[in-house]
Amino acid sequence: MKTNLIGGKSLEQWLVDYPLLKDLIEPIEIFWGNPQYDKSSCGIPISEKEDIQDASRRLERFAPYLAEVFPETAESNGIIESPLLSIQAMQKRMEELESIELKGKLLIKCDSHLPISGSIKARGGIYEVLKHAEDIAIKHGLIDLTDNYKAFDGSDFKDLFSQYSIAVGSTGNLGLSIGIVGAQMGFKVTVHMSSDAKQWKKNLLRNKGVNVKEYASDYSKAVEEGRSQAAADPTCYFIDDENSKDLFLGYAVAASRLRKQLEGLKITVDENHPLFVYLPCGVGGGPGGVAYGLKAEFGDHVHCFFAEPTQSPCFLIGQMTGLYDSVSVQDFGLDNKTEADGLAVGRPSRFVGRKMGHLLSGCYTIEDQRLYSFLHHLAVTENLYLEPSALAGFYGPILLENHPVGLNYLKEHNLEGILRNGHHLIWGTGGNMVPHEIMEEYFNKGTRI
Ligand SMILES: *Cc1c(COP(=O)(O)O)cnc(C)c1O
């Protein structure tokens, strides 16, 4: 009889070795503390920190251009950044609903309201397009690092870029970011969309002249197709969400800017003032890049947790089993079907898993129903409207302060006594571009739950 092995082992053996997998494949919500968590973040090499600073400077060079062509960034002088807010009313609501008290104070990072494309992908995705454009322009002698980058809006640049194409595979938001900026700069852009991608995202891109290809299969397939089609065309640049260092660096820039925002709110992060950060995770690139930047910036005083849907915990499975990208959620019998479209990814990024997996404090899974409930309560208490994926972080503070795994983490890292001085930062990853009537449906659904 043929038995189906997963990474060389039977399912029964996996369940013996990692008992938490039993709940994970049920699936019911789990909270996993990372046994490999390594407090060596101060050991992030100087060269890597310099790469992040280099990315930050590149975004500054492009700021005059962005302010010119995307007027919504003019107010911030062309810097694509989002608000950091204290959300006391939502905290009170969560405490009432769960009959708990949260010692740390709740903050939200509103990447849901990032200009240009309204999601965390406006960090990495736009950065990589800009970097690619800069590389081409320098190679053709059109620009120098010290020039004013407003020049990128000129017809000479657009004519040049029209001879090049960019391709990407996406569940929706990455395609949106890359499509909007790529098309604005003059590139021919093709976005390979997974079956989860929302119709309105495809329509919006087509209206901007982007070529949208649709697949009946999931995200990994869309990426694979995009990669192989792009490989056949030497003028085509493939933005590889599963492997790209540039995407990663674009996300990582968030951390130094967050430090300034925290200072603006008079919030300290140090050995007596911990910062806990909760990031919704799909393939791992966005949350991985941000978390890596945070570890480079705040070292051991920041604690990062990833949140995934119960049906799509690809990063958690990859880290827990040590199989990284050689395992998919489907291998463990999950179907990768979730209403959190931005997180509907069945196989994690190898690059991110290996690069920062050991810097991650833990991962948890969350049911779709709970996402809608948070969506409703956040809208009512704070008048903030996020898409379902973007709410996955809200469960984190509740788990950290009440779940046995969370309590154990606090104890092990001597955080119990200083929790009261600390902050829970929920990374709100998307929502501002969602059409009004669709957001209304989300909200109503959350109201019914
Ligand atoms: C893409 C996305 C994420 C997760 O980013 P990954 O790089 O796929 O891990 C989280 N939230 C939203 C809204 C997203 O679009």
Write the layout of secondary structure elements.
Layout (H helix, E strand, L loop, with lengths): L10 H7 L2 H6 L5 E3 L12 H24 L14 E3 L1 H11 L6 E6 L10 H19 L15 H7 L3 E6 L2 H13 L2 E6 L5 H9 L3 E4 L4 H13 L4 E4 L5 H8 L1 H11 L10 E6 L4 H14 L3 E8 L4 H8 L28 H7 L5 E5 L1 H15 L12 H8 L1 H9 L10 E6 L7 H13 L1
Parallel strand pairs: 3-11, 4-5, 4-7, 5-6, 8-9, 8-11, 9-10
Antiparallel strand pairs: 1-10, 2-3
Helix pairs in contact: 3-10, 4-15, 5-7, 5-10, 7-8, 10-12, 11-12, 15-18, 16-17
Which key features would you list for this structure?
EC 4.3.1.18; Rossmann fold; 449 residues; seven-stranded mixed β-sheet; 18 helices; four-stranded parallel β-sheet; TrpB-like_PALP_sf; globular; lyase; pyridoxal phosphate; Probable D-serine dehydratase; alpha/beta
